[in-house]
Amino acid sequence: MSVLLTVLESVLQEAAALSAATGLVYTTAVVTVAASSVLFRHPQRRRDARATLTILMRRNGKR
To answer: What is the pLDDT of residues 2-30, one digit of tens each?
Structure first.
């Protein structure tokens, strides 16, 4: 039984690390796009960045 617990603990630690890395990448993408939607000089690029931000921040499964 202790072997099973050791394997389970290892899997859970790796899953937590992967989840944290995924969250960090997603947060970085959202911050980058949000900054782009404000800082770009060309209006079309700002609109594109805002549209992308809307897609990234979509909630409740609405499509």
So the answer is: 898 999 999 999 999 999 999 999 999 98
Region of 21 please: left (phi>0), alpha (psi -120 to 50) or beta: alpha
- Tokens 């959202």 correspond to 30
Tokens standing for residue 53: 């931000």
Residues 33 and 56: beta-carbon distance below 8 Å: yes
Query: φ and ψ at 18, to 5 degrees?
Result: -65, -40
pTM surpassing 0.85? Answer: no
CB 30 within 8 A of CB 57: yes
CB atoms < 10 A from the CB of 33, how many?
19
